[in-house]
Amino acid sequence: MGVRSDRPTEPGIPWRQLGKGSLLLWGALTLSSCGSPETVPPQPSPEPFVGRWSEPQVVGDAGPGFVGSRLSGGGGSVTGLLLDDTGRGVVLFSNIGDPADPLLVPIRTFANTYAAASGWSTPVRLSPSFQAFPDALAGDGHGNAIVVWDTNPGGELDANRFAAQGGWQPATLIAKLPQSTNAAHAQVVEGPDGAALAAWTDTALRVARMSPAGVWGASTAIGPPAFFFDLAGTPSDPLMGFVNDNRLLFLAPDGKGGWQPAAEVPGTGSIRVDAPGGLAATADNVGGFMLAWFRSDVVGNTAGIAAARYAAATGWSAPVSIEAGTPDPGERALKLVAGPAGHILAYWLHGDGHLWANLYTPRSGWGSAGPVSSAMPLAQSGLPPGTSAAAGAAAAIDGSGNALVLWAEAGVRLVSARATPGGPWSVAQALPSAPGTRGIVGPLALAMNTSGSAIAAWAQPSMCDSCPAPREVWAASYEPH
Fold this sequence. Notes:
- By secondary structure, the protein is an all-beta fold.
- It has one domain (23-254, 262-479): Methylamine Dehydrogenase, Chain H, CATH 2.130.10.
- The chain contains no helices and 38 strands.
- The strands form 8 sheets. Strands 21, 22, 23, 24, 25 and 26 form a 6-stranded antiparallel β-sheet that branches.
């Protein structure tokens, strides 16, 4: 949604949470900036932070980006991250070089693998092309993974598989792309049997399936070109949705390899979808799907955040409000992340510069929304007053419903907080600083397995005299005990 963080542009807030889920969304996007400030509800006293972060280490080179007087901008950024219950993980990132010609920017797709027992491996370049954008990463839960990337413009969409016992396999063509287009925001999901489903948009919204043997079938056009969409879940159980004329619609499989006619999600009202992050969706990993969106009144003003759950047996639940008080006009970047047992965290950036969140539990539903990042007031963080406390954020949930959130204070200091189901957010805990770095932290990625172990990854400039400085990809691991 919005500008892709791996494109050669200024770094921004990641538009989607990287992990499981199963909803595909697209639509025309509009921005509303009207409304009243949101009232902060009373918050319980924070608990101590539980767990420990490791010292960060370099796991890849994101490149210098555009330096000198030619263009402004940074190097590459982290595009995907996963960690499964085998203790294996993968980070996907771009490397953006310093071009001799600013119209020919070298952009390359890289990945590095992680094992809890041995740590990070050596980065591997997946794309031989001069310009190749890393789009998405997914895993089967057994230590295997798949990456999709596209060449631009008028190139192709490709995939690389990673086998836990055999390493990276050669790139496989998914589809040729129409001339002067690229596979915008291509996404991929992988099932436990190794099958995969990819979705992308060029002149149309398209999907293609890969068999467990690694053979890609022909692509199928399923809708009009999509400026924004999100794909998650499993290849055998997808659900698709899109926004049209301020209506939230969905598509479900017909059981014969196609899709049922589009239908409106009941009771959604008018939708405010802005860039980045006015609409979010995820599979809940217990047989259902959750949508959350910014509501809009009849004149386009912000009217709060709503959510609804879908299950095949019962259909859609009635939409409910998941924030408290008067909606804030500056809230943005709404995201959802689900744990393996059906817990879901909604989180977004508030107009006051803080990170807000609300946790859904399968038995009790949504809790009370409130600020996460206020657990570490700016006056105690060593940052200037008025500095944004949540320049970017990522979150994950373990098998017990414990949520871990990571954000960048003022874009430079990484901080995390943890919450148990029904409990308050902990005191925020700053991560150890990456040595020899300075400047803005790139988009953040966070991945967690069922036991609560997690890894985080981000790109950050190194300490040097050039501006912007070359970027390196950093990672740190978290253990809950």
